Amino acid sequence: MQTGLSNQLTRQIGEHLVAAKLGRMGYVASPFAGNVPLFDILAADAGGHSIPIQVKAINGASWQYQADTFLEIELVDGFQHVRGKKPLPNPNLVCIFILLHPNERDEFFIFRLCDLQDFTFKIYKSRKRPKAPKSFHCAVWPKHIKEFQDNWGLIAKSFEA
Fold first, then answer.
1. Looking at residue 119, what is its pLDDT?
2. Region for residue 76 given its phi and psi (left: phi exceeds 0; alpha: psi -120 to 50; beta: otherwise)
């Protein structure tokens, strides 16, 4: 189990790796020292256009999140009913998930927030959770998002939009 410091370092490493990669691609990228709720990095091109980027780094097997961030889920008598997708504040937000490796051969997965919502909608089923009926816990593993690995071209496309 990771400690608070370990989690903080994982987050910091991920954000700085992304900022460095974006710099090598010709973008100015800046992570924030504090907590900005909807994104972690602001990247800008030579023309001064900017895009926000959400970064999630892990040392473990999967990225953890709450399905009700993306889905309308109704809880009735301990049974979760998926009613549909929630409207997202920024469906085209660029997300970069990083799987950190001790040998520094880290893996990067680049996609839009709506892609994660689509994945969640596809895998999260209406169900009864016997141990924790009110839990909307969900996880995504690298094998689930392999199609987005090293999808750095999405950054340039995001500046064009």
1. 96
2. beta
